[in-house]
Amino acid sequence: MTLSLWSRIDIETSERRQHALDYQAEFLSKRITRQFLEQVNALKRLAAYWDHNGGFNKETWRKNAEELHKDFPNFKAIEWTDKNYVIQWIEPMAGNEQALGFNVAFNESRRRALDSARAQGDINSTPVITLQQGGQGVVVYVPISKGENFQGFIVGVFLVEQLLGSLISPREEEHFHVRVYEGDKLIFSNSATDVSPDITAAADWKPLQFSWRLSVQPKSGWLHNYSSPLPAFVMSAGTILSALLAWVCYLAMSLGRQRRSLLSANEALQSEVASRQEVEQTLSHVITHDALTGLPNRSFFQEDLAQAILRAQRANKYLAVMLVDLDQFKKINDTLTHSAGDQLVVALTKRFNTLLENEISIARAGGDEFMMLLENPESVDEVIAIANRIMACMKQPFTLNDEEVFITCSIGIAVYPEGGVSAEDLIRNADAALYRAKAAGRNGYHFYTTGMHAEALKRLELDRWLREAIERNELSLAFQPKVNLKTRDYTGAEVLLRWYRPEQGFISPAEFIPLAEETGLIKELGMWVVRRACQQLSEWRGTPLSHIRLAINLSAIQLEDKELVHKIDNLLREFDVPPRQLEFELTEEVFIQNIESNMAHLNELIKMGFRLSIDDFGVGYSSLAYLKHFPISCIKIDRSFVSQLETNADDRVIINAVIAMAHNLNLSVVAEGVETEAQAAYLQKQGCDEAQGYLFAKPLPPDQLYKLATSLRNGTSLQQG
């Protein structure tokens, strides 16, 4: 009887202990899986952001990858591989230099796996491997789009020791010896001091393609909480018959205490589980909602849209996806600070919620873009009515930093099923329609049509070609001479960028320059132009072109580069070119965006000895304030006024006024697009200083400009203006 009672209590205690340890192992496995997948989801969001923006330049990549690494320091490296699986960009670079340029499809099985991920758009991962930059780790590959639209992988690199060590909490480190196996291979083990080898729990962990197994053994501190003195007491009681009753009473009391202790421990464990579930719910909300507005974010919207599509399929109904983007939002950020931009987004969210309550699902995609889902519209007219209501609600001003601000929006709309049959297609096509709405002048809406998809693909292809153009040596410079209208001497030349792609022929600057400005690639192209112009001036030294002044266009986007002046100065030193031989023609955006910063850059250029002029004066946002506040030396009259001056009296009045005003301010004047002798004669009569156009010379490659200068050596010469 004593042995039976002892055995029963011992088995019950062991079972409770094993059950608690099994629960702990399972809980640890699920929590590690969840935390690991949070980091994988961060990679997915970066890939989606890349795809949404049609690609990154290197600086945008660095900023986004750097922010991601700050949020999730467990990454050994965050990388981008191109379509050929070669690592092109890495963040951080320190400690990862060996991986740059490495082809991640390092054997046939990896290539097949990556080819499959590329085709299907699925995430892929390696087992534990020896990393190129050293150490044992796993690598996760997140494709940017798929199939023909594939743009490479966003890659997350994890050191196994660092990853698993960081995912185990201090409490778990104190109470448990945790080992992780990949197959039979031990890949991780924490401190193994004071471990009981008699009890073990295990749990499988398979978040992606790899499969790991966790083994958990308790340390003495945890084991003590689940130990019981009852079996020893029962054995002692069996040998002391004379004190049987006393021992039975004692055992009963001890059993009650032990049961209460176990119940208390179980309640504490349940409390911890509840607490962790609450944290999980909070974390889930943070992951799926925008922190500023509380609206669902892009990933949540995509999941919600996918479910809505299934409902629409079953019910044979329509649904509409609307992308709403604020017009000139960047101008508000630049002039009233980013906090004012945040205030505007929050205020607009309140208006949308009030206006569209219970009618439409709203999410914030990021920045100034909102995503909306309208289910079961009766007709296109209902979609149009809502678009008009959205635009109408913005007519009332917003108060930001005690100032009244008026803002408009553009809306892109894609309707299921004509506008796409998947969440990805509908969002992408609505974005294409949004681009068309903005191109049409903003403050309007546009529905997606099938032709837009081809147009969007063409823009993506053009962007890819343009990024390859420098490496393939497809770019060149052309030079259009400027002429002194009184003497007809050649005084200088404007530098123009030309692009010849063997497969397509010459591609117009009107196609690729706006795209380069939109994607930020204009910074790299602009510095290429300055470098090539300086190199050309160096090559012309000692020839009739020795002292020619070259005019180079400079956009507001290029002025965003804080190192711009320093880079230009380095090029002057490298090619030994004096600043007086370069002139920068400024576009109108310079005078309406980042004004203080732009002014600082321009003053630095003036101090170095460069000359600045305003390009296309008289169109767009042209203002006399430019001339008062900016260090300008010259005004260029836009060709649209020159082309009609012989027949249009208004154009003649504008030209006369610009020339008179410029001379009163001690500025010189250049007329663009002069094609007839009558135009040149009129401009000369009104006092215009210089002109350029086909009447004098079309844009010429360097060798033809050299021939022109040589042929005029004994007559008209190309001289410094």
Automatic annotation (TrEMBL):
One GO BP annotation is: signal transduction
Q: Where is the EAL domain?
A: 459-713
Mention any one GO cellular component term assigned to this protein in its UniProt record: membrane
Lineage, broadest ranks? Bacteria, Pseudomonadati, Pseudomonadota, Gammaproteobacteria, Oceanospirillales
Q: Which UniProt keywords apply?
A: c-di-GMP, Membrane, Transmembrane, Transmembrane helix
The record's annotation in InterPro entries points to:
CHASE_dom (IPR006189), CHASE_sf (IPR042240), Cyclic-di-GMP_PDE-like (IPR050706), EAL_dom (IPR001633), EAL_sf (IPR035919), GGDEF_dom (IPR000160), Nucleotide_cyclase (IPR029787), Rev_trsase/Diguanyl_cyclase (IPR043128)
- Residue ranges constituting the GGDEF domain according to the UniProt record: 317-450
What's the protein called, per UniProt?
Answer: cyclic-guanylate-specific phosphodiesterase
Q: Does the record carry RNA-binding as a key word? A: no
Report the subcellular localization: Membrane
